[in-house]
Amino acid sequence: MNKQVGLWCVISMASIPLVMTLGNSMLIPVLPIFEDKLNISSFQSSMIITSYSIAAILLIPIAGYLSDRFGRKKVIIPSLILTLIGGLIAGLASSMTDSPYLWIILGRILQGFGAAGAAPIVLPLVGDLYKNDDEHASSCLGIIETSNTFGKVLSPIVGAAFAAIVWYIPFYAISVFSLISLIFVLFFIKVPRDQNPHDPLKIFLSKTKDIFKREGNWLYVVFGIGAYTMLVLFGILFYLSDILEKSHDIEGVRKGIILAIPLLVLCLASLLAGKNIKGDLNVMRYLLVVGVGILSLFVPFVGFLEDNVRMLLLISSVVGLSIGALLPTLDAMITENIEKDERGTITSFYSSARFIGVALGPPLISIFMNEYVKVIYILGGCLGVLILILTFIFIKPSQQSV
């Protein structure tokens, strides 16, 4: 193992996706409360999640290029500061103004910009620190993705608990968590000095184009799987949060604990998958095929189970199991098959794809939830079948770069 990668370095890297996940997923169980306190619609409340994701989508490729050119840590630190400031803007506006909705959206956009330069940069950073050590890199990526998913487990409980005190405390909490992660990064992550010259922007863009020409088929499928998993996950979480409160009168921390159940399954699956990949492309392909296949099979049932909370939780947990196996697999495929100088940019495109799913899930469900929820989840299953076919066709270990 690289001597620069100690326990506190791994903890510090893992804190970044944990904070970014808390900063978004923590608000999902609180959205119905926002609707009541701010007098906004379900679609408007979904924009509190989507504005964050859209901002991240726009900035992630730029952040990836900057991290390749100037260094990972130099991008992560100001990004965490932006996330901190965004939380303060949303929190102060909520506590000090009568109509804070637009200020909340502004704060969330700033947090999205911060997220763009923080969590996605961790993936190429792991590749840098574990250069030529695929087994340890896969294991570390499993820990990183587990931290991400553990944040998803904690987030509904923590968000509901904070909102039970005062509805806008989750915004301030995001700033506190960002500050803690910032301190960890400053003191415990020691990035190896890069002695290699960097290409000017024009050459960089040309090389990026060449990468997609050379590797495009399997990369596009990986991006598609990443977007699909987040679309399914955040769509189901938004749907569960809404119907638990409005159809079953389950609120507060109790609702947060129920939402955490499928996320806990996701977290455990992510940890186990990360430990067993070990840089083996055949194992990665097998996990992708099985994971996407299970999603395609079970997602359509979600729309038919509004009145049966136990069955809905069971199906959601199976979905969580599949997504948990997929996420570290996708991370490893990107990180271990792209050269170091190109890694930040390619992982940034992958992260943008994931954020597209996050951005689309809640508003799509809010629009179709009342009359067409069954249709939207059936279409979600059909989309999974299409992605499964593309996975069979284009992801072949013998054809990928190593």
- State the name of the first-level CATH class: Mainly Alpha
Strand proportion, as a percent range, falls in under 5%
Computed over alpha carbons, the radius of gyration is 20 Å
**Total number of distinct structural domains:** 1
GO molecular function, one term: transmembrane transporter activity
Pfam families: MFS_1
Organism: Filobacillus milosensis
Keywords: Cell membrane, Membrane, Transmembrane, Transmembrane helix, Transport
How would you characterize this protein structure?
It is a single chain. The chain is mainly α and 402 residues long. The chain has one domain: MFS general substrate transporter like domains (Growth Hormone, Chain: A). It contains 14 helices and no strands. The protein is globular. The model has no long low-confidence stretch (mean pLDDT 86).
Labels describing this entry:
single chain; 402 residues; mainly alpha; Growth Hormone, Chain: A; 14 helices; 0% strand
What would you say about this model in short?
The chain is mainly alpha-helical. Helix content is 82%, strand content 0%.
Task: Explain the layout of strands and helices.
Blueprint (H helix, E strand, L loop, with lengths): L6 H19 L5 H8 L3 H29 L1 H25 L4 H16 L2 H11 L4 H32 L3 H20 L12 H46 L5 H26 L3 H18 L10 H29 L2 H29 L4 H22 L8
Helix pairs in contact: 1-6, 1-7, 1-8, 2-3, 3-4, 3-5, 3-13, 4-5, 4-8, 6-7, 6-13, 7-10, 7-12, 9-12, 9-13, 9-14, 10-12, 11-12, 11-14
